[in-house]
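We both want to read discrete structure tokens more fluently, so let's practise on a single case. Would you write everything just below, so we can both look at the same thing?
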Amino acid sequence: MIFPLEKLVEFNDNIYEITVAASRRAYQLAKIDDEEVRENYGKVVCVAARQLFNKTVNYRIEEKK
């Protein structure tokens, strides 16, 4: 699997938000030793980005109090 560049080009929302979300999701995937990551030769960032762009995993911004 490669990084989903076509999805990145088509992305019209805040690129900073999805970058942070992908980084945090990649960290989660690395910690749990996910099967999908193993199938993709340990490429956690690519798996995380694909999950976010395909809306397999959603994210939200929480307001600080």
User: Anything to note?
Assistant: The radius of gyration is 12 Å. The first helix runs from residue 5 to 10. The helical segments are 5-10, 15-32, 35-39, 44-53.
